[in-house]
Write a structure and sequence with these properties.
By secondary structure, the chain is of the alpha+beta class. Helices cover about 30% and strands about 40% of the residues. It is elongated, with a radius of gyration of 16 Å.
Length: about 140
């Protein structure tokens, strides 16, 4: 199941992240996960929230460059090779990973966020291979 992620272009300057968080808070958009990748001048903030469309709209109205991106949140078996098996499944079908980030805090449960080159095909492959997807968002 595809999930929508808010992607925000953000200038790398003092207070800019706080401004984005203020907008989301002011619009009752709850952040479930986020990743920030930066260079010396700018970055891409990726946010998984409970209300992605509302978050994107609020950020755009506040003057931020924001868009919705289709991603997957996948449960990863917490065993050696768990991630390898998932990536191998989509690689066999010639689907590229554009980016991913992960989370495992309790030593038992692990999840990754993954953006693929072909979300529709990846969704079919995940279902066929029994790779569990998670969606917390109202899409």
């Amino acid at each position: 199941m595809v999930t929508k992620q808010i992607s925000v272009f953000i200038e790398n300057r003092k207070g800019r992240l706080g401004e984005i968080l203020d907008v989301l808070k002011g619009n009752s958009v709850n952040i479930l996960s986020m990743s920030l990748a930066d260079t010396t001048e700018y970055g891409i903030l990726r946010i998984i929230s409970d209300k992605p469309q509302e978050g994107k709209n609020a950020l755009a109205a506040a003057g931020f460059s924001a868009m919705l991106t289709e991603i997957f949140i996948l449960k990863v078996p917490h065993t050696p090779g768990g991630l390898h098996n998932i990536l191998h499944a989509i690689s066999e079908e010639e689907i590229n990973v554009e980016y991913m980030y992960g989370l495992s805090v309790d030593g038992e449960n692990a999840s990754i966020v993954i953006k693929t080159s072909d979300p529709e095909k990846a969704d079919i492959i995940f279902a066929k291979r029994g790779i569990e997807t998670i969606s917390f968002c109202k899409i």
